[in-house]
Amino acid sequence: MTPQAPSAAPLRADCIADSAGGLTFDVAARGESATAHLVLRRRDADDEVGLPLAPAAEGRLRAALPSSVLLPEGRWDAYARVSDGEPLRLVPGVTDLRSLTERTPSGLLGHVAVRIPYATRQGNLTVRSWLRAPHAEAGEPHLAEEGLTLRGRLYGTRFDTGAHAELRPRPGSGADGARRAALDAEGTEFRLAVDYTALEPGVWDLWLRPAGEQGPAVRVARLLDDIADKQPVVTYPRARVRAPGGLLEAGPYFTRDNDLSVEVTALPG
Question: What angle do CA 223, 225, 228 make, to 5 degrees?
Answer without folding.
Answer: 70
